[in-house]
Amino acid sequence: MCSRFRDGIWAIALTLLVCGCAGSDQRRPVAAQANVEAPAPRRVLRIAADPNNLPFSNENLEGFENKIAKVIAADLGADVEYVWRAQRRGFFRHAFKEDGCELVLGVPAHFDMAATTSPYYRSTYVFVYRADRGLKIASFDDPKLRELKIGIHGMGDADEGSGPPAGFALARRGLQNNVVGFSIYGDYRQPNPPARIIEAVAKGEIDVAVVWGPLAGYFARRQAVPLEVVPVSPAIDPPGLPFAFDISVGVKKGDKQLKEEVDGVLARHRREIGKILDEYGVPRVLAAEAPSATVE
Questions:
Q1: Nearest-CA neighbor of 227 among 251, 244, 206, 242?
Q2: 84, 157, 219, 269: which one has the fewest Cβ atoms less than 10 Å from its Cβ?
Q3: pTM of the full predicted structure?
């Protein structure tokens, strides 16, 4: 509620009170007012999120995790209070232990630093390339990759080419010299730093990128040229490297009641959450699926 509207409501309430007390019987309304209990304060959900990380979250509440958090809070009759923190090493320790947060959205299922809910979506890493190249790549075994510059995200500086899981799959095939590394952290002075890798594909600076699906699906739509977004196939690269993951809400460990409440919300609003994910272009796969089709 904006301050002007709130102030207006209080002004009307004060006027009614003054007018009521100005009548011939002033004591009765005052006595009735004394017996009215103040309303209980609304529940607050304290959530840790990155303020500069679309399509997931930002401080303007434009990310799909912001939208899903709003669904959760509305169902529980609560307000959301964000603690903004860039997602770096130590994010979860700060969020749960130092910042007093209760929830973090977008957490891998069975993540050991939180109690995780049932998954609310499952997505996959994808290949991203310009549609006008006609590459039709869906597998790390495609021989065309040997002639291409392949962008992947890493945890370090932009010149570091290693990074799970794509870095391992490419290195196992002797393609490490084809890799162009992009820091997942990027330049935080710019909006949404991880998006630089998608922009590099659109500009022709790299030929193909292997990127987490939600990031690719969102930013591919926003480039000046059409991009193909194709799930990595198979979903598990032999002998056992996964490229598809279940995503849950992370709840502060020990808060069993809140975890059960959020599980209930996710079940009740599964269709609404699915629509939000669709609006943001999040590619989704089934648990037993080996994805290979282009994501629209």
A1: 206
A2: 157
A3: 0.81
